[in-house]
Amino acid sequence: MERGLVERARAGDAEAFSAAANASINRLYAIATLILRDPDRAQDAVQDALVSAWRGIRALRDPDAWDAWLQRNVVRACYRHARSETRRNLVWTSVTVLDEPTLEDAGTAIAVRDELEHGFRQLSLDQRSVIVLHFFVGLPLTEVADVLGVPEGTAKSRLHRATQSMRAALAANERVIPATERRA
After folding, report:
1. Which of 49, 57, 81, 145 is an S-S bond match for 73, by CB 3.0 to 4.6 Å?
2. Domain 1-90 is in which class?
3. CATH assignment of 93-184?
4. For residue range 113-155, what is the model confidence (pLDDT) as tens digits?
5. How big is the CA angle at 52 (ends 133 and 27), to the nearest 5 degrees?
6. Residues 130, 132: Cα–Cα separation, whole Å
């Protein structure tokens, strides 16, 4: 992010803030969608995070920390939305485009995606957040901890528990599938 743009935004320039936010919005939306598992709620969380960021832009001490600061705002907004949401999560699946798949390839790809989605939904919000920031965004654990506002050891233990939970969910799914295939 261009440091000058962030400094102008800190000085109250709405156009500079808009330009800086627009440069990050796709990444923020991807983070929120992965954490909340609902594109509509993710959109709301990103919007809330950007409003919060605009209101608190003067609190940003280091303009070079813009991306981490925005990501922290988005994660916090995701937590607020997850806590305040009383309706059930919508089932959301993404469309996978395959190059001329055979019927078996398409079925396998869908089955794998569904297994991963099921395992990911079993994770707590804390675990999903650390998985998204570390594996999807590519942040090292020190930065994940900073974005989440937790000690590095906490981020490490959340990541460890999340990967264990994913493995357990996938292993449980593998045990269930053969039993149902035998009955058919």
Report:
1. 49
2. mainly alpha
3. 1.10.10.10
4. 777 777 778 888 888 899 889 988 888 999 999 888 899 999 9
5. 30
6. 6
